[in-house]
Design brief:
It is built from 14 helices and 21 strands. By secondary structure, the chain is of the alpha+beta class. A 7-stranded mixed β-sheet has the order 8-7-16-17-18-15-19, with helices on both faces. It has a 6-stranded mixed β-sheet with strand order 10-2-1-14-21-20, with helices on one face. It is globular, with a radius of gyration of 24 Å.
Length: 472
């Protein structure tokens, strides 16, 4: 019997970062691949709006320089990451407090580094200006006195993030989690993150003043219902790297992946209506024959094409973009709200992090609201930002308000961080809903799916692809 003619060995449905990462692995192995995207551009939720010279991310998920897949995924070798100032700024009780992770190392070395930090602060003059993580020189001396057994009586400070000893314990805990292998983190007992935080031996003031607002921003989950294992992975990435943004906007990452694929691989404006193990049917381009199909859409679209796939819950995200000619004094820092007295979870002057996102002479302030936004979202956000940044916002101009109801898949326990990507031979699925709901998770799921496809198809080129059908 003559072998049937195929348009491609593998059809990838969806041109988000998961599907594009998988396509790179497949084409690099000599497998002809066609990526079909219903929209007229690639990227899915990683999109950026252009307004009067500004680049405005719709969701604005935070990246980390420690994400392994950013360095391992073919096509991202020219990606430029713009890091925030080290650590984060925490707004608590009307003040800003710098909180920075210790150098990665962990274990006893991390504990020694934390104690050395306390010693360094203890030797600082009493006139030291800005306290670090809410820790003044007098507080450091008090901590050192207690840690070394000195009998010198020093008043205990009311540090918003805990005492000096509390912060040394936090630094040691972050150092340990930075040094813990990922597989060991995934083997830990699982519970909601908000419950697990209270079991780490850290004081409630440190948890509420730093860990809760940090994890809410990293996970887009204000109530911390996320699996504790996912929370541990987020802290692992935070402690090992720097929070960052892709230069030019979120859309740059999928665009780089798409441009690095062989010409003719990505086809936009092609809506798939049904799939099987050997073909996909489209709305306007007829049937496309193949050897395998990889669904790389969001969870809802995947379940529409394959009824029975589990659809997770989602965390809604609203991003409000403002501009002014007088940037706040918070600099290139990610600013977290520990008091939770307004709608904003975190905010930043992103034009100081990535100058390409705003025209010269203008500052771009992007602020994130997690959960259901208030009715007058811009008014409520402006009032909150005035307190957070410590400046008037009445002259700020609103550029855009982006609300995404299904922004980030929820990862509530029990959560399988390595959900199967192989449904059966010839049919696969990937995306952040199969891994962790981060860019790292999306890229990693694409890698896992491509490996599963290659294992079933065998290595090496299979045949020359036929031309794709034209729109009817």
């Amino acid at each position: 019997m003559p072998e049937p003619v195929y348009q491609a060995d593998v059809v990838v449905v969806g041109a988000g970062v998961a599907g594009l990462a998988a396509a790179h692995r497949l084409t690099s192995a000599g497998v002809s691949t066609a990526v079909l995207e219903a929209a007229h551009c690639v990227g899915g939720r990683m999109s950026t709006e252009k307004v009067d010279g500004f680049r405005l991310d719709r969701i604005g998920q935070l990246l980390s320089t420690s994400y392994p897949e950013l360095g391992l995924t073919p096509g991202l070798d020219t990606l430029v990451l713009r890091p925030f100032a080290p650590g984060v700024l925490v707004h608590s009780e009307g003040r800003h407090h710098r909180a920075s992770p210790p150098p990665a190392g962990g274990g006893a070395g991390g504990a020694r580094g934390a104690l050395n930090a306390v010693r360094a602060l203890a030797s600082a003059p009493l006139t030291s200006a800005t306290p670090r993580a809410g820790l003044g020189a007098a507080g450091a001396r008090a901590a050192l006195s207690r840690a070394t057994g000195s009998r010198t009586a020093v008043p205990r400070p009311a540090a918003p993030l805990g005492s000096a000893v509390d912060q040394a314990r936090l630094a040691a805990a972050l150092a340990r989690i930075a040094a813990t292998p990922v597989e060991r983190l995934l083997a830990r007992p699982e519970s909601p993150a908000r419950h697990a935080l209270t079991d780490r031996g850290l004081p409630s003031r440190t948890v509420d003043g730093f860990l809760r607002p940090l994890l809410a921003a990293l996970l887009c989950d204000p109530e911390l219902t996320t699996s504790s294992r996912c929370a541990d992975l987020a802290l692992h990435a935070f402690a090992r790297g720097r929070l960052c943004l892709p230069e030019g906007g979120a859309e740059v990452l999928p665009e780089l992946l798409a441009r690095a694929l062989p010409p003719g691989t990505v086809h936009t404006g092609v809506r798939v209506t049904s799939v099987s193990t050997t073909s996909v049917t489209t709305a306007d381009h007829g049937e496309i024959r193949c050897r395998s199909v990889l669904l790389a859409t969001d969870a809802h679209a995947a379940a529409e094409l394959l009824p029975g796939l589990r659809v997770p819950g989602f965390h809604p995200v609203t991003v409000v973009h403002h501009t002014t000619d007088e940037p706040p004094s918070t600099g290139a820092s990610l600013l977290l709200d520990a008091d939770r007295d307004g709608p904003v979870s975190h905010t930043a002057v992103v034009s100081l992090v990535d100058p390409s996102r705003a025209p010269a002479g203008r500052a771009l302030i992007s602020s994130t609201v997690l959960g259901t936004p208030p009715d007058d979202v811009d008014g409520a956000v402006r009032a909150h930002l005035a307190r957070l940044h410590g400046t008037s916002t009445t002259r700020w101009e609103t550029l855009a308000v982006h609300h995404t109801a299904r922004a980030v898949p929820a990862m509530r326990p029990p959560h399988d961080l390595r959900r199967t990507v192989r449904l059966l031979a010839g049919l696969y699925v990937c995306g952040d809903h199969r891994d962790t709901s981060t860019v790292q998770g999306a890229l990693h799921s694409g890698t896992r799916a491509a490996k599963a496809v290659l294992a079933d198809l065998g290595a090496g080129p299979l045949h020359a692809a036929e031309p794709m059908p034209r729109a009817a």
